[in-house]
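pasting for ref
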Amino acid sequence: MANIVILGAGLGGVIMAYEIKDQLGLHDTVTVVTKDPIYHFVPSNPWVAVKWRTRESVQIDLAPVFERRGIDYKPVPATRLDPDSSTIELADGTKLSYDILIIATGPELAFDEIEGLGPEGYTASICHVDHASKAADAFEAFCKKPGPIVVGAVQGASCFGPAYEFTFILDTELRRRKIRDQVPMTFITPEPYVGHLGLDGVGDTKGLLEAEMRQHHIKFITNSRVARVEPGKIIVEEIADDGAVKKTSELPFGYSMLIPGFRGIAPLRGIDGLVNPRGFVLIDKHQRNPKYRNVFAVGVCVAIPPTGPTAVPCGVPKTGFMIESMVTATAHNIRQMLDGKQPTHQATWNAVCLADFGDSGVAFVAQPQLPPRNVNWSASGVWVHNAKIAFEKYFMRKMSRGESEPFYEKAMLDILGIGKLKKTEQSEVG
């Protein structure tokens, strides 16, 4: 009998619960611990922030789904992890032990690292549905008194796609309201160039996104570092390749949304051998921590080195399909461990992304996500917007049914040659 605990119930944690449950025996247990009892489809947050979606339409109550699947559920925040004793302390004063732990917490949003940043400061956020709902109210107030908009990401961010999406979604909504001509827009990013995405680009994302920016009259500043945010003003430093400040600008705004830097959650930070200095979980090629061999990690909480040096720190994004590939590899590896074997499965870390721009969009496929790649493709068009809507509906239905990968999804991915597991000699033998 194995006692498996999953810490976190975002995209990675929920799918992990479904997949590992399918791999286990009758007497094995799966327990999910999370501070959020309701699952929210994070890719829809940019739509929530302009009221194209309500928060209720992009959320799922996990309790009945987990109960139906036979998964134990504790909607209580974790306060401390002790990997030496294989226990987790919870906010209600209880302690939970595990045989195998899967960390799928996602990140902590580091708004506090920049003065004035975030929903408690002067800028909006779309990283959580609570933030997106608050951002929607702020946008409604802004539209009654239009002015400059500044959108983008700050130093240390590792999720650039939503910043681009929200920029163009705002542009679309402003045009629909016939007030776009009253709103100068500026996009700021720590990326060395527009379309870098923390991945050194995918296909021609640089050309595609720069062209979209120019076509929509959106100015952009790259290699930017936000010094601080004041009421109605962002102080931005442009950084040269040698790290020197080559220009400081004061950008006025009536509305701003900036993606913050990410770090590991507090209960994990500072545990030697488990996490890096930023609090992200260290893993080997089998998603397993090198020091604590009964601990695995999937999703945004995983430590991934940057693709290369940049003048301003840029993290590597963990996209949805990449996370799903981590989940599948982890589930298979844990099954092998329970059978007394060594883990052999490796995630492909392939990336398939649909970035909606309101009435068009950009799609890219990177196999694997980090270069050099076997497939390096990007394209744009109205079809991306329609595909994103269809995917939202499909994914929400899949989550509410307690499914990870229905057979027809797997069949389609096989046809497209987009796999979740690497084909290695070891895994084929295993």
